[in-house]
């Protein structure tokens, strides 16, 4: 005899609004109307794990003191799609323009992957910089709002299929092929691990303790933010750039409607002037 499979709970308009509001308040990400199916797809299993019959029960749990379930919800709801050498023109610009311009600087070159997801962006930058070393060495910081996804980035393990866009010489030089229980996986080698540090961070928080950077990658993030959140974020990030430092957004994004001191040098690539009000 077999039991019937219970249908997953449906989310009501007020329940969706409550979850959307909480996500926006904590991360700046705004779920547009019509994303109810996405929320149910990502949270449905969690409700079953907790034995909760309705999203109303889950909303009540999200408001419990301590906030542990809020962190779980953020992990499940934040988008983590990425790949190695995604939007490759940005890495060409890093190699051809940014690194040579750093030659006269007498300090470590610093790059921040500000929404690094599972780490492919940060490791891609590390490969490019290892092949084209800036004067004074370099370091990369990768951050993400999802604690789960950052833990995966630190492990540096990926399906071998993820290497499709990594040039073969780089793949052989910087990655290890998994064996036995790691068969079918590749692991970041010591050269990359020594240069890349990952940490959990929320872009809505004050992140001045990260220091200043020559390049900040903020790609495929602002599409999820409303205009006030974008403006606030850009104001803070421009203060974390060195003079002549670059902020790079995705090829489909622009800062045209966001007031800032940054100047566009190419579509999706912005630079902080060397002196306030001047460029050069």
3D structure, described in words:
- With 280 residues, the chain is an alpha/beta fold.
- The protein has two domains: 13-77, Chemotaxis receptor methyltransferase CheR, N-terminal domain (Chemotaxis Receptor Methyltransferase Cher, domain 1); 89-271, 3-Layer(aba) Sandwich (Rossmann fold).
- The chain is 38% helix and 18% strand.
- It contains ten helices and ten strands.
- The strands form two sheets. The chain has a seven-stranded mixed sheet. Strands 3-5-4 form a three-stranded antiparallel sheet.
- Helix 10 (227-238) links the parallel strand 7 and strand 8 (241-249).
- Helix 1 packs across helix 4.
- The model has no long low-confidence stretch (mean pLDDT 92).
Name the shape in a single word: globular
Ranges where pLDDT stays below 50 over 5 or more residues in a row are: none
The helicity comes to 25-40%
Number of strands: 10
Number of H- or I-type helical stretches: 10
- Judged by helices, strands and strand pairing, the structural class is alpha/beta
Give the helices and strands as they follow along the chain.
Answer: HHHHHEHEHEHEEHEEHEEE
Q: Kindly, what is the distance between the CA atoms of the first and last residues, rounded to a whole number of angstroms?
A: 77 Å
- Describe the strand arrangement of the main beta sheet, using strand numbers: 6-2-1-7-8-10-9
Q: Tell me the name of the CATH class of the largest domain.
A: Alpha Beta
Assign the CATH superfamily of the largest domain: Vaccinia Virus protein VP39
Computed over alpha carbons, the radius of gyration is: 21 Å
- Beta fraction of the residues? 15-25%
Oligomer: single chain
The third-level CATH topology of the largest domain is Rossmann fold
Total discrete domains: 2
Q: Quick check: average pLDDT?
A: 92
CATH architecture of the largest domain: 3-Layer(aba) Sandwich
* Main sheet overview: 7 strands, mixed
EC number: 2.1.1.80
GO molecular function, one term: protein-glutamate O-methyltransferase activity
Organism: Dactylosporangium sucinum
Enzyme class: transferase
């Amino acid at each position: 005899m077999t039991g019937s499979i219970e249908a997953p709970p449906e989310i009501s308009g007020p329940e969706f609004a409550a979850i959307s509001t909480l996500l926006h308040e904590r991360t700046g990400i705004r779920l547009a109307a019509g994303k109810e199916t996405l929320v149910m797809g990502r949270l449905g299993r969690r409700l079953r794990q907790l034995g909760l019959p309705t999203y109303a029960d889950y909303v009540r749990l999200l408001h419990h003191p301590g906030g542990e379930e809020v962190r779980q919800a953020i992990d499940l709801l934040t988008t983590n799609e990425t790949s190695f050498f995604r939007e490759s023109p940005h890495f060409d610009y890093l190699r051809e323009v940014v690194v040579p311009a750093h030659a006269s600087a007498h300090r470590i070159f610093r790059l921040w992957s500000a929404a690094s997801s599972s780490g492919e962006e940060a490791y891609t930058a590390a490969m490019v910089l290892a092949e084209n070393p800036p004067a004074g060495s370099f370091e990369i910081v990768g951050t993400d709002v999802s604690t789960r996804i950052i833990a995966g980035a630190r492990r540096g393990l990926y399906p071998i299929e993820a290497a499709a866009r990594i040039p073969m010489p780089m793949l052989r030089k910087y990655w290890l092929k998994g064996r036995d229980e790691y068969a079918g996986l590749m692991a970041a080698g010591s050269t990359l691990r020594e240069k890349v540090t990952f940490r959990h961070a929320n872009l809505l928080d004050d992140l001045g303790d990260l220091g200043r950077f020559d390049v900040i990658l903020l790609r495929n993030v602002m599409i999820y933010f409303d205009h006030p959140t974008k403006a606030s974020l850009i104001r803070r990030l421009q203060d974390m750039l060195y003079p002549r430092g670059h902020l790079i957004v995705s090829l489909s994004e622009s800062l045209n409607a966001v007031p800032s001191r940054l100047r566009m040098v190419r579509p999706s690539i912005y630079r902080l002037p060397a002196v306030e009000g001047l460029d050069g």
